[in-house]
Design a protein that fits this description.
Ribosomal Protein S5, domain 2, alpha+beta, four-stranded antiparallel β-sheet, eight-stranded mixed β-sheet, 381 residues, Alpha-Beta Plaits, 11 helices, 2 domains, 12 strands
Length: 381
């Protein structure tokens, strides 16, 4: 799928050409899971699956319209007076509301969406939609193409308009990643650095989708807030849970459940630092840290599933595969394996067959390397 497909779909639906086509990728997180909303560090890459948003301004007397091949009914709304609908297009109309609040003067418009980012698989399809919309609407409104600002705006859409209490990682990865690099992001300060990463990635979609609004995601966030509140009794200056030490977590007066959540966050943050250091020093990835991450997500954060565990166990020890773990929030969705391209390609079919025999579902698999972030594909203004 590419920008030409989005342009052609726009012609079919609305006639004529769009004024602009913007795109943004999905992402996989190499390491640093559930650390982002706890003020910690993460290391995502953009994948080679993208969402394309083609937009054309409309006369002021008309309402705005959005359509997607996956949802053939056309959504109509006033781009200047947006209210949440609970529908998929909130990820786009919320961008309108956020841009209006920031002072942008948006026209009414019509837009189509095309994407090959899997929905509900933990690859940030919502962030890709938000960021692609923000990039395209920014072009329509003659806004400066500040990718960090658009990433933050898109995150506010996710958390405040749609209502998923996620961290900033997904939108920052979709907006800021560079080809051939992982994005090292400090989620408390929003500082970033690009880290060269040449390893190939096998993405394994377990075909057991989950939606964050319906998962235990918000419960885990509340548990982390509870852990932070307890730690602040002895260290009032502690800003974020990820900034605590393992010793502080072990000493704190936690319930066993809260202690496990806090331990995962603090130790996962340390794993990010260790893996980034090795990548920068040797250009190789410490795969054992990925296995440690998965074990903690399974046992301490309790967000894995039998399907995700099966994949990680199945690839462990295979020649040419460095490490593996679940990626995304968990509770279904995707896992990744890292290593040599040929080794990953050679094992993908066997993994799919074994998984289908075990769980009765056909998984999705594809190979990727670190790709590029959001961009304007073409403009006709």
């Amino acid at each position: 799928m590419n920008a030409s497909d989005a342009r052609e779909y726009f012609r079919q639906v609305f006639g004529g050409d769009p004024d602009v086509v913007g795109s943004a990728p999905g992402r996989v997180n190499i390491i640093g899971e559930h650390t982002d909303y706890n003020g910690g560090q993460v290391l995502p890459i953009a994948i080679d699956r993208r969402t394309y948003v083609a937009i054309r301004a409309r006369p002021e007397a008309h309402l705005s319209r959005i359509v997607s091949p996956r949802e053939p009914a056309i959504a109509e709304f006033d781009a200047r007076r947006v209210v949440p609908s609970g529908k998929w297009w909130d990820y786009m109309t919320g961008v309108c509301a956020a841009m209006e609040r920031e002072g942008a003067r948006l026209p009414q418009f019509e837009a189509v969406v095309q994407t090959d980012v899997p929905v509900g698989s933990g690859l940030s399809s919502s962030a890709a939609l938000e960021v692609a919309t923000a990039v395209a609407l920014g072009q329509i409104a003659s806004e400066p193409p500040d990718m960090k600002r658009l990433a933050l705006l898109s995150w506010h859409v996710e958390t405040q308009f749609v209502g998923v209490a996620s961290g900033v990682m997904d939108q920052f990865a979709s907006a800021l990643c560079l080809e051939g690099h992982a994005l090292h992001l400090w989620c408390d300060t929003l500082e970033t650095e690009q880290v060269i990463m040449k390893d190939a990635v096998l993405i394994f979609d377990t075909a057991s989708p989950r939606e964050l609004r319906g998962s235990k995601f918000n419960q885990r966030r509340a548990e982390c807030e509870e852990a932070l509140a307890v730690l602040r009794r002895s260290r009032p200056s502690l800003l974020h849970l990820a900034a605590a030490t393992v010793e502080e977590v072990r000493r704190a007066d936690f319930s066993p459940r809260i202690r496990k959540r806090a331990l995962h966050v603090v130790e996962e943050n340390e794993r990010v630092e260790r893996l980034v250091l090795q990548l920068m020093q040797t250009r190789t990835l410490a795969g054992e840290l990925l296995y440690e991450s998965h074990k903690s997500l399974r046992d301490n954060y309790e967000c894995s599933t039998p399907e995700l565990d099966w994949f990680v166990d199945a690839v462990r020890g295979k020649p040419g595969i460095t490490g593996a773990r679940l990626t995304g929030a968990g509770w279904g969705g995707c896992a990744i394996a890292i290593g040599e391209l040929d080794a990953l390609a050679a094992t993908a079919d066997d993994l799919s067959s074994g998984y289908k025999a075990r769980f009765g579902r056909q998984p999705g698999t594809w190979l990727t390397r670190a790709g590029s972030g959001a961009r304007i594909e073409d403009v006709d203004l």
